[in-house]
Amino acid sequence: MSKEKSELTLKIFALLIAIILWSYVMSEVDPRTSETFNVDVRFLNKSSLERQGLVVLEPENATVKVRVTGRRSEIIKIKESDILAQVDLSGYSEGKVKVPVYVQAPTSVAIDDYSPREILITFDRIITREIPVTVETQGEVPEGVVLGTPEVRPQYVAIEGPRTWLNSVWKVIATVDVSTANANDISVTRSIRIVDEDGNEVRGISPNVNVVDISIPVYNVKTVPVELRTENQLPENYEIVDIIINPSTISIIGKKDLLQNINQINTQPIDILELMNNENVIVDLDIPEGVRLADGQGQVTVTLNVDDIIVKTLNFTLEDANIVNLSPGLSIAEESINRTFSITIQGRRSVIEALEAEDIEIELNLQGLEEGSHNVPLTVKEEGFTLIDVSPESIQIDLVGE
């Protein structure tokens, strides 16, 4: 046999011997080994906490790493569920406390080490608070419609939970879509939401009710003029020039069937003499029952402009008159053209004082008159004044042939 073949045979023989020896050791000797497990921690005596009005706020869950040592044959049989890790919650008060962890493993293995050995637990007091329900709306209200103050049943919701979480509660909200509101009141049932200042829902809170009934009155809007009501009379020879009311119109809110019968809003009666002697007088409005203003304070400012009445007499000749319907072939004699007459008019001083003779429109109608002498009435067009007298009432006209 060659030297190379002899060395190969020896190596193979040595490998076989090593394998046989390793198998013997593993099956017969069974060496000790260690294994680490992640074990969930059980919380004991939660009922004791509840009797004290406490709850575990943090942590919700906990795990520990447990290292056990034993024979290999025993270690491979161990599962995480075979190892017990627990904390006893009894006997503690509100606050943060380090609670020891107790670990137990099957008797076939030994606990070598575990971590952490204590868990920081936050115990919080269970409290109850009553919070009013806030109604929030979503969607745009149709034009010409406004909403009244919502009514909620129940008005308050009792919420229960850990003090820390309840302290973060900002309000209890119920949301109503108002985009389809019409003449009918809104009546709906809606779920509530418990939220913090950022609008996020607060966890772990138990309300005594989950839904509320909501009623929202629906009103219509109408714009109507303001009418002034006065008491007493102006002195003789005075006349109202104009009345300025600010604002002259207002928007009112009420039920649709009520607003249909309201076409104006009157002021409370006010003495006309007070208005005569003062500018910008504040007057209260007489708001009908069941109606309210869309805005404003229920008052208007009134200014009454008055003027005294005067009489004025103006003198004319026929040259100042508008002569109409003079028959063809006839003319007015010169002495008739020069005849004079006068008119007396009455009106507001500001108007009458500014009037001149040429501002008065006078007409002499000769319809159907033939050659000869005629007494023809004068016609005065009243514009901005009242005609008191025409003297003479008719004027003599001599018509001559051409």
- Low-confidence blocks of residues: none
Give a quick account of the main beta sheet: strands, pairing sense, barrel closure: 7 strands, mixed
CATH class of the largest domain equals Mainly Beta
CATH level 3 topology of the largest domain: RNA Polymerase Alpha Subunit, Chain A, domain 2
Overall 3D form: rod-shaped
Notes on the structure:
- The protein has 402 residues and is mainly beta.
- The chain has 4 domains: 32-116, RNA Polymerase Alpha Subunit, Chain A, domain 2; 126-216, RNA Polymerase Alpha Subunit, Chain A, domain 2 (Beta Complex); 221-307, Beta Complex (RNA Polymerase Alpha Subunit, Chain A, domain 2), CATH 2.170.120; 309-401, RNA Polymerase Alpha Subunit, Chain A, domain 2, CATH 2.170.120.30.
- Helix content is 15%, strand content 50%.
- It is built from 8 helices and 33 strands.
- Strands 2, 5, 8, 11, 12, 14 and 15 form a 7-stranded mixed β-sheet that branches.
- The model has no long low-confidence stretch (mean pLDDT 89).
Summarize the structure.
This protein is mainly beta and 402 residues long. The protein folds into four domains: 32-116, RNA Polymerase Alpha Subunit, Chain A, domain 2; 126-216, RNA Polymerase Alpha Subunit, Chain A, domain 2 (Beta Complex), CATH 2.170.120; 221-307, RNA Polymerase Alpha Subunit, Chain A, domain 2; 309-401, RNA Polymerase Alpha Subunit, Chain A, domain 2. It contains eight helices and 33 strands.
